[in-house]
Design goal:
45% helix; 18% strand; 2 domains; homodimer; Rossmann fold; 9 helices; Arc Repressor Mutant, subunit A; alpha/beta; seven-stranded mixed beta sheet; three-stranded antiparallel beta sheet; 211 residues
Chain lengths: 211, 211
């Protein structure tokens, strides 16, 4: 019987970093990596890494290290990256175009399936091999292409309206880049990506260093 | 005598959200806001808000609320947003162009002062009223325009090289969007913005909901 384990958000946040580093290690042709080396590459202590990975089960061999391929597969499963999520980006301005071209979508196993915009000049254009559809067609396109995740890259005043449309159309998750709180029904997962947080954080630390 | 207060990273991460909401409140012409309303707008409990803001001093009046203008100014000071940081973006692809057009730079008090690229076709073009310089001129431009923060938006394999150049040129902080760990001297502040973390987080939670 599989036990239900409660995992902290901080641990979940580190798993993609492990996954990325393991991928690079694998590309280098390596089969085993120690927690010490993983730590060195990531700037995380080996103790923290061993603790994080121990919450999910036994992926390593004491005194040898972790089997890269096996650990990668396991972390990918935990994160649900083996589910082949289909993604749609709404709002094909600078940020939306950057996200549509984001190489990690593919690396992480996500499929860019649709793009939406409200601007007639943008609708019909091709970005990263995907044709931009009109946001008014979101219901039909989300259903036809089985879109799981909607990425919101529209200006803040339109974010809630777009979220409502995506939810009605049937997405399960929303990745929100608009700097605005969005309200969604409880069965919808939402992750807010707020760039001002990172920037303010940097400002805070520079200020402290320069004082 | 001003006491040195240790503030948790989680609190620091919430301050920009407070700042943003206060700005909107101010634009609405409001002078006072309660922790309850701030909480409702942000999806954070009023208790958490009162606790966060209490670590810095007394910004509110019991039973009335916070004075919007005063609290905004204080949070801005704590985050160092009153320092008029000068910013340069390196790598003017889709993401770099999106960052160069990022409206929150101005809202948060940052000045976009320079853009750099290595591609001769991009060098000399204008993005958001700033001319793109060649990365080889980074030393001169950073000094002349007093750049404090370098934003790295180049592909991962070039990220460390660009960071080294920015540090040599004299920046104090680095905001890194390349999905690669960057090593910098201890006196340099670095904040890594890794989009795959948010995306994997979303995947994790959708998987848990659908199970």
């Amino acid at each position: 019987m599989r036990q239900k384990v409660v995992i902290s958000k901080a641990t979940i946040d580190r798993l993609p970093l492990y996954f990325r580093t393991l991928r690079v290690t694998k590309e280098e042709g390596r089969e085993i990596i120690s927690s010490e080396e993983l730590g060195r590459r990531l700037g995380i202590t080996p103790e923290q890494i061993r603790k994080d990975l121990a919450s999910f089960g036994q992926f390593g061999k004491k005194g040898v290290g972790y089997y890269v391929h096996e650990l990668m597969r396991n972390i990918g499963e935990i994160l649900g990256l083996d589910n082949n999520w289909n993604i749609a980006v709404v709002g094909i301005g600078h940020l939306g175009a950057a996200l549509a071209n984001y190489q990690n979508f593919i690396t992480l196993g996500f499929n860019l399936m649709a793009l939406f915009d409200a601007d007639e000049d943008v609708v019909g254009t091709i970005v990263n091999k995907v044709k931009v559809d009109h946001i008014n067609d979101v219901n039909q396109v989300v259903k036809e292409r089985n879109i799981h995740i909607g990425v919101i890259a529209v200006p803040a005043p339109f974010a809630q309206e777009v979220a409502d449309k995506l939810v009605t159309a049937g997405v399960t998750g929303i990745w929100n880049f608009a700097p605005r709180k969005i309200v969604v029904p409880e069965h919808i997962c939402i992750v807010n990506e707020d760039l001002s947080v990172g920037l303010s954080n940097l400002s805070y630390h520079i200020t402290r260093k320069l004082l």
